[in-house]
Every structure is written in structure tokens, then in C-alpha cells.
Amino acid sequence: MADEKKQLLIVTGMSGAGKTVVAHDLEDMGYFVVDNLPPTLLGSFWDLINNSNDFHKVAVVIDLRVKSFYTDLLDEVNSLEDNGNVQATILFLDASDDVLVARYKETRRLPPLANNGKGRLLDGIQEERHILTPIKNRSNYILDTSNLSTKELKKKLINAFSDRKRQPFSIEVMSFGFKYGMPIDADIVMDVRFLPNPFYIPELRPFTGLDKRVFDYVMNKKETQIFYHKLLDLLETAIPGYIKEGKEKFTIAIGCTGGQHRSVSIAQQLARDLAKKYPVDITHREVSRYIRK
């Protein structure tokens, strides 16, 4: 990793165009992000990054605080590149005037150059746009966020700046016991405590749903068959929609009282059926509690 080339991405642009959202997305993509770094500190900051092996993808968000910032920014970028320290990539975020006005009204905030609330919103936006013209002309990427949802914005960032692009979609099927607490990271939780319980069959009680006798007892019941086919149909209908929305990991939690019999059996069958179309991992959270040592 010490020989990995370091990347510097400078994020700037119109106030209200989405720099905060982009900063969070870049962090999700593995960037070390510094927000509102004064441009005059960019050279010193990059020297620290260069002397560390801990950071390889770095993004700096530069916002308009005083008018001289953008003159300073161009000077600092030129200095870095002239010294051969780094080839900086500049991402400029833009949006139309009417969209920016609407966003400011929605958040009840003012653009930096709105004259402390005494001037018109549009006047402040247009003055800022004029000041930012030189850095916009120097930018490698100009991204107009006017008509982008947060999901669409993230997709464009991934396509432009992520090494891994996008993780393939996968499913985790989990069994659990309600008496040990619900999983907090599940996307769907299904309660199967209404199904016939092998716990009340003495010869089945010591075993788990991984045992064929328990599995067959649960899955061969008429109630189970009706429920299971409806559940599978529901999931097969919903999962393509989650993929379309950009979901990468989808967790389905199946719970019964103790996480020993019914939830394990249903989870086993569900994992088998979903694995015909998708990559599937299966986790039985409580099974280790019931395995004799």
C-alpha cells in the first residue's frame, strides 16, 4: 500500500449545489474527506498526506467563505502541480439559479454573498457564480445537480471516482430468536412464531432446523407451505426493485421464539430458493446455543 499513488480530489462549486451530500458519498466510497479546508492550507495539508501511508484517496471540500478563497485555491493548485506533488482533480458542483433559490428557501438559509440577508437571494447567487467562473473553467468534472436525486448523484460519483464502481448485489438470510433480541440491521424481518413448533415434539426438541427431521416437520406442514410460497413470491417481486434503487446488500431475517427450529428451517429453504437467482449467504444466529458440545 505504501507505493499506491495518492489521489487528491477537490470538491467545490456553487453553495447549495450539494457539496455536503457529495462529501458523505465520497466517505462511503473510501475517501478521506476534509470539509471547508482554507485553500491557503492545501499545500501544507498535502505534505502531511504525502508523508503518511494511511491515506490514499483524499477529497477536500472548498466552500466560498470569502471572495479571495477561489483566487487562493487556483494559486495553491497551480503550486502543487508545478512542484510535481500531485495532479489534482477538481469536481465542480453546479445547479440552476431557480433550483438554488428553491433550495435556499426550503432550508431557510442564505447564500454566502447575500449581504447578511439585506440583498436578494438571486443577487447573491449570481455574484457567487461570477466569482466561481475561473475555477469552474479549470475543473475536470462539472456536475449539474439540478435534477438529480441523491441516489442518482451517488451513482454518478461512483461511475466517475470509485475504484470498485459498484459491489454486486447479494442477499443475507438470517435466522434468529426473538427472545435474544431482534437484529437491528435487517431490511425485512419475518415472524414465523405462528407455525407449528417442533419444540413440543420430544424427539425433535434437542435438534435444530439443520436436522432433516426438524426441517421436514416444519416445511411439510400445510400452514408452512401456504405461508412460504407467499413469502417467496413477495421477495421475488420486491428484490428487483431494491436492486433498481441501488441496494447492494439485502438482509432478510426470519425469527421464531428461540431461533432453533422454525426460523432455521424457513431460512434454509429460502436461501436455497433465492440462490437460484442471487448470491446468498446464510447465518443462523442462535444455532450455536443448541448444538451439543
From TrEMBL:
Domain RapZ C-terminal: 170-287
Highest taxon of the lineage: Bacteria
UniProt entry tagged with the keyword Nucleotide-binding: yes
Gene Ontology molecular function, alphabetical: ATP binding; GTP binding
Keyword ATP-binding recorded: yes
The entry's keywords: ATP-binding, GTP-binding, Nucleotide-binding
A Pfam family this chain is assigned to: RapZ-like_N
Protein name per its UniProtKB record: Uncharacterized protein
Naturally occurring in which organism (per UniProt): Lactobacillus kitasatonis DSM 16761 = JCM 1039
